[in-house]
Amino acid sequence: MRLYAPWERTFKKVSTPFEHFIHAQTTTGLILMIMTIVALILANSPLTQEYMNFFHAKIGLTVGSWALSHTIHHWINDGLMAIFFFVIGLEIKREILVGELSNIKVAMLPILSAIGGMVLPALIYMSINYAGEGAAGWGIPMATDIAFAISALVLLGNRVSAPLVTFLVALAIVDDLGAVAVIALFYTEQIHMLPLALALSSFLILVSFNRFGIHMILPYFIVGLLMWFFMLESGIHATIAGVIAAMAIPSKPKQSPLDFTKHTKNLLDEYDNYPLATDHMIHEKQKAILLNIKDKIDAVGTPSSRLEHDLHLPVSLIVIPLFALANAGISIDFSSIGDTIVEPVSLGIIAGLILGKVLGIAGVAWLAIKLGIAKLPQGSTMNQIFGVAFLGGIGFTMSIFVADLAFLGNDALIFQAKVGILSSSMFA
Fold first, then answer.
1. pLDDT surpasses 70 at 1
2. Which residues contact 194 (CB under 8 A, 6 or more apart)?
3. Is the torsion defined by CA of 163, 377, 424, 159 positive or negative?
4. Closest Cα partner for 158 from 7, 31, 30?
5. CB under 8 Å to 331, separation ≥6 — which residues?
6. Residue 166 above 50 pLDDT?
7. What secondary structure letter does DSSP report for 276?
8. Would you call 337 helix, strand, or coil by DSSP?
9. CA 184, CA 170: separation in Å to the nearest integer?
10. Burial 86-100 (b: 16+ CB within 10 A, else e)
């Protein structure tokens, strides 16, 4: 009999269609927490210089006169994080097609709450930093870290209803979509048209693969990699390629579920007609039938769902931990931490992520419910929505990502931003 960790027992109580998604996000949140602590320890230990030097070491690829060379930190943020954004794109697509965002009546509350939770934090930040050098950081407090937020909520166990978890997931998905749009539209300094046109051509090729019914992953991977490179060269942040590529991955099965059921039943009946060759071996015909059933399973599944399922583990165990290790390590002078927190950038982020998120999410939710535009998740109260709004203030991954873009080359402002993000995320 398998023994379950406390959070795993909780998963068995969450009877939603995206139980695996919840499980994966909670695992990501726990690992992210551990790697953040490791990064902070390394950045404030005698190994600080070695830690910094490692992530600033360059890795390059040279072919003749052509060369592509970036620091390890850059490869993580622009390369590996494209895989993270690809998974986000798949999650957004699933939610829109068959998830909580597919029913507009159910989706209205998380959509409106997410918009409130993005707009108000940005306005609060700008009210503090409007005329300062940190004005470009208005996008930082708009983000919610889906993994951390879901981890905190699910670990509360049976005190939280499944529809409330669903509300937070839908809200965070809409929030991610907003963050991607902000990065693409407002954090691009210069656009090079030829690489952008090639990136668009690559996307159109991916769409044509989809239209022609190609379900093999390899063609999408090759063209998607080219699109990532062209996007990198275009000036638009390369991670956006991940989200765009996800939109082209097929989400319709080759075989209908009804046909799958009918054919699989026939194959299983045929399988039972053959006796076992020995106690430990099956008949050769049975092996062929099992392979046929496997092909049927692949046909009734979709590349989109397979990729989302298969990539969650490497993203959870490799991409996100490396991102946290490379970005969360800040050297803190505890004697001056009080002065840093009250800097306009830090203060704007803290006020945005805590005050802005709570008022934006809970305030808009309350207003939408009072106006009859939306209704509370089943078995939930307004007080619980208020609690979820606090969890929305856990910005972390996406907030740090936006901070690096907003204050590129300004280490002082990036430091202030990260102090604000870590402080507010811990409080939230």
1. no
2. none
3. negative
4. 7
5. 43, 44, 48
6. yes
7. P
8. helix
9. 21
10. bbbbbbbbbbbeebb
Tell me what the mean pLDDT of segment 114-129 comes to: 95
CA distance 18 to 305: 11
The C-alpha angle with vertex 130 and arms to 357 and 411, in degrees rounded to 5, equals 85
Tell me which amino acid residue 232 is. Answer: L
| DSSP tag of 141 | G
Q: How confident is residue 299, by pLDDT bands cut at 50, 70 and 90?
A: low
The label of the residue with tokens 């008022």 reads 359
pTM score = 0.78
Q: Stretch 302-312: mean pLDDT, rounded?
A: 86
Stated length of the chain: 428
Whole-angstrom distance, CA of residue 407 vs CA of residue 138: 11
Closest C-alpha to 221, from 238, 209, 237: 209
pLDDT tier for residue 301 given thresholds of 50, 70 and 90: confident
Helices within 4-103 (DSSP H only): 6-11, 19-43, 48-56, 72-74, 81-97
> CA-to-CA distance for 102 and 232, rounded, in angstroms?
32
CA dist 144 and 173 (Å) reads 9
- In Å, how far from its chain's centre is CA 197? 27
Q: How many other C-beta atoms can be found within 10 angstroms of the C-beta atom of residue 379?
A: 11
Q: Which residue has the tokens 């856990």?
A: 394
Decide if pLDDT at 100 tops 80: no
Torsion of CA 229, 21, 405, 195, to 10 degrees: 20
Outline where 237-356 has alpha helix (H): 240-248, 257-272, 284-300, 303-314, 320-327, 337-341, 344-350
Do the Cβ atoms of 19 and 159 come closer than 8 Å? no
For 235-247, b where at least 16 C-beta lie within 10 A, e where not — what string? ebbbbbbbbbbbb
